[in-house]
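pinned: reference chain
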Amino acid sequence: MDLISNGTNVLLILLGFGLLIFVHELGHFLAARWAGIRVDAFAVGMGPQVLAWRRGIGTRLGSTEPAVRERTGRSTIELSDADLDAAGIGETEYSLRILPLGGFVKMLGQDDLDPTASSDSIRSYNRCSIGRRMVVVSAGVFANIVLAVVLFLVAFLAGVRFEAPMVGEVVPGSPAATAIAEGSTGSEAAGLLPGDVVRAIDGARVDTFADIQIAAAMARPDRTLRFEIERDGESLVFPIEPTLDERSGLLSVGIVPAAGTTLAADEEIRPMVDRVLAETGLLEAGVRPGMQVVEIDGLPAKTFDQVLSAVSASGGQAIPTRWSGAERVVAEAMLPVEPTYERLVYPERMPAGAGDYEFGLLGLVPLVRIEQVLESSSNSGLLQAGDVVLRIGGLEGPRMAEFRAEVTARPGERISLLVLRDGEVVETDAAIDRSGRLGVGVGYARELPLVARPFDRLGRPAAEGIEPVRSPAAELDLLPRTRLASVDGRPVEDWASFRRGLRQATAEAARDGVGAEIQLATVPPTPDAPTLTATWRLTAEEVAQLHALGWTTPLPAVFFDPIFTVLSAEGSPVRAVGMGFEQTVKMVTLTYLTIDRLIRGTVGVEQLHGPVGIVHLGTRVADRGLMYLVFFLAMISVNLAVLNFLPLPIVDGGLFLFLMYEKFRGRPPSPAFQSGATLIGLVLIGSLFVVTFYNDLMRLLG
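pinned: its structure tokens
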């Protein structure tokens, strides 16, 4: 079914993309006909002809030109208007080409690749007035703008679902997490919080979460944006300066959309959702991707925040839930609850993409576990889901960020791995791809009471100017891969029991607000090593942090579809037209802003999409419904119009620039100049095609 669905989506996008090109070329064609210019060909697509039609000839596989020669003895270009009329043959051949990546209108006396092309015919492009030629050149862009307005109108009349401008998770340490509300004197207004609704940014109304992402990504470097927030009926203003998100390569403030209660069924995340459902017993209870939590602990649930609230108040006990699906399918299941862990920040700046914090307890972190091996990974068969990483390269007991750093530092190489697999120690050499990835998903091996390299110091990255502090684990002087045996005599079987033992041993100290001393028994990672016991001294602050930890669910927010809002004209055509024009202006502005940010360097060329990427993105868009697909095609239509009218040789904007020169100078640019400019334009367009095709290919392979 996924294959059929994807194939249908690809077909829909190709047809939609073809429509945009058809309308663009139709604009040129109709304008040329209005101007009295003879049009020899109207083609959708590039490359060899698949089908062609000409009045008086009919439909042919390939070109109609052989049939014209057979009837007249000459090619169409050699026939005058009178000759064509006498033979009952139309002047224009309409064709569909094999590659749906463009199109063209061929006019007598005009050739994009040959600026010196001309004709003595009174109906030739070069004999037409400059004003009429300007209309012909710009008509394609105008047609795409009109089409965009119409598509926006249709979409808003029906209503389009977008991710709501509500804050979900706030990335720790991000600009959104550290921002201070204007006029605030305390910590109660420090940072955005889940559930906050963004109403405006720099005075511009915010309707969707995409508006937030675009405003951040398109912000000028080192510029602070004013976020107008609604929180519990109160209005707050947060000055926030976006910073570069190393994962996306764009400026970001560090927030994700608020999640609802419907389990995501998207093909990209479904394997992870299925795995967690199976591991937690929810799959056996009948819970499936696409189902919705309608009730938790006897109360109705509409947002993921309500689920988290119930989990936080659970005291660590599983919670009864009720799920609903398609065709009145209902499942009742106990939702497992897991303990949360401390966010331990590295004292130094970690390599890009590695992450700058871990989740553990008092400076101790679990080992890394391979959660999933992608089918496309070259390590399929070498590595297995469930492998626990004991060593990578020469690094014993790597933490998560250290594991990632070791991999990303060796693109295209092989690296030795020592893993624990089903109780056996296995050594293997893994292949790292050219992008610095193993093709695996990783998590923490919390089911084993083994520690990765303990932290000696903790704190924020030194670049932020905050001095690191000594880690609570430093005094233990533990080796990587040490096994935790007991806490004050309480056996440790996994990290959950370790956390529980620590909290029980320090419960009295937490009540009194003082520090504590506990007896920690450990086993070093050496053969026949004896159990060692040490006195672990914790400060009052460390005890308080330990007891501030709460509970979470193994189904994180990213596993749930976001909360949606619907942008609709509510049946009013006038309002729909206004919304269409507003979106068109916004998209035009955004396209020019993107070009500006490319020049400034805040948007990288790796973010650009080519035709392949647009089709791939479109297949995912199609899953969100027909109206969102219509909206997506309207955006592409605007982009097609703007890019076509850039003042670059070979595209419509460059030709229009030549006509302006001819209008003001009384003569066109020299043939040599036009030929040189055309060559430069071809190189630029070709280079852009190669870059975007490479980007698209890497996204598909990644």
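why pinned: Residues 111-159+568-702 form one domain. The CA atoms of residues 644 and 651 lie 5 Å apart.
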